[in-house]
Amino acid sequence: MDRKTMQVAGVVTFYMSAALTMVFVNKEVLSNSPELPLLFLLIQLLIAVVLLHVGAFLTPRIEIPTIDRDVAKKLVPVVSVNIIGLVFNTLCLREVEATFFQIARGLVLPLTITVSSMHTRKAPTAKVIVAAVIVTMGFALGVAPAKNLPTKAIPSNISLVYGVLSSLFIAIHAVLIKISLPYCNNSTIQLAWWTNAGSAVMLLPFVIFNGEFAKIWDKYSNDATWDFSVFLWGSLVTGVFGFLLCIAGLLSIKVTSPITHMFSSAAKSGLQTLIGVMKNKDVLNAQRSISILVILIGTMYYTWIKSNEAPPKPETRPSDIEASESSQRLLFNADEESELEELKSPAPRKP
């Protein structure tokens, strides 16, 4: 194996490992502490902010913005949509099995295409519409009632609502990122800091009003069956791996290609399903298997379409200290599927 092949293999392995760790550790913590979803999310956001400051201390390529009230006001929409999407994403994962989570959030791609088209006022091509229809059909198949499923494996209506709303806000967030970048000197890392720090500030009152600080103290003091170490270490691991997943996604897009990256995402989804069945005893019938397969086929077809399109003309914009790296992937939102935005608008590769 030559150096390039080993580099690609290493990056793909890094990305898949980080993504799988995020999903299953998140699920483990939410199963162990289902009444603490907002506190769990708050800790992840704070860890992301801390790691950004550590990175800024280690390298000048990571620039922490100065606090500016006017900038903060302009970024309220993107921060608000980010935290709402994260809350719905967390609640969805709490309610469903890890294997079904891929189906519950299966509308990310169709909704991203729809929201982007509405924003640009430009209709998608026929091929893109076909890809969106394929993914939508996969989602519809997965959520359709199935016979002979155990009660615990049947998703509730509210969990499906969480999944659809999570997908919708991820789609809106992708558009708002592009609108918000100029307010941060076109620095993706500065926007990442504002998004995570702002999301933590917005989320804190809801953690308090939901009584989650009191709940965790009560469980720690009075519930002998509760394993506090699962919540503690799970929060730390997901916070760190959320940061690593951002780096892994950046490297995967930069070192490989959108097609290779999407195939690694598909392989990750397959492994996620297999691990969920073997480790968590998730239920996987033929209907759900076909649903996941159809969603992956539609997503990969879409990626193939976009990778064969002529790259858009670069916009004239101020220099970005991060060399215009992927804005979506640098937002540390602990969402293992956020690579869809990069694939929607792949940057031209350097020779």
UniProtKB/TrEMBL annotation:
Transmembrane domains' residue ranges = 7-26, 38-59, 128-146, 158-179, 191-210, 230-253, 288-305
Kindly report the protein's main subcellular placement as a broad class: membrane
Q: Does the keyword Membrane apply?
A: yes
Q: Which UniProt keywords apply?
A: Membrane, Transmembrane, Transmembrane helix
- Indicate the segments forming the Sugar phosphate transporter domain, all copies: 10-302
Instruction: List locations, semicolon-separated.
Output: Membrane
Q: How does it sit in the membrane?
A: Multi-pass membrane protein
Protein known as:
Sugar phosphate transporter domain-containing protein
Q: Which organism is it from?
A: Leucocoprinus birnbaumii
